[in-house]
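job 3f2a | input accepted
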Amino acid sequence: MRLSSWRQFNLDCHSGKRVADWGRGMAGFKSLKGQLLLDGGQLRGSFFHRSVVLICQHDENGAFGLVLTQPTDNKLADALSPDLPESLKEHCLFLGGPVQPTALSFLHTDAFLPNASVMPRVNLGHDLEALVELGSSFSPSQQIKVFAGYAGWTAGQLEGELERKSWVVHPADIDLVFNSSPTTLWQEILRNKTWEHRLLADAPEDLAWN
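job 3f2a | predicted structure (210 res):
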């Protein structure tokens, strides 16, 4: 994710330090689509400090994710169009990541969603017309989150960051994606894991406070 991390990975490969190991790693590739990535304590000072990212796409060519923990002060009616359906106008716009900050993405869940692309009952979309159509439909169980920008990794970049323990992987579910407070989600998940994760969750924002 971080440019410096990707540059270091390239330097390692050109120097021959990791080529053999990397080939073996990609042979056993495992997609993280539908998983959450949490800042593992090494991303202080970056866009992803204390973030939770839902991985929406992941294959040998790279990964695409949306940050769940950065709501903005903007409502969709102000940020996208005042002509949105009433059901969408007051929705909060989230910052999905630092890549292409004007790019639109949205997550959609419903009680019955047979063609969900991210995980069971969660679909990813990018088209404004499709978003308007969803907002105009009547479904009491439907939930939508809309994002500007996204998080992106090139081939092998995410795997390299996982090797360096930049991220903590956690299973996603509907409640974590749609029904949790974005400002406390990172801490809430970590506090329900190991004691080391609980220590990380309760560490002060400024380590100088210790």
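job 3f2a | The CA atoms of residues 103 and 164 lie 29 Å apart.
job 3f2a | closed
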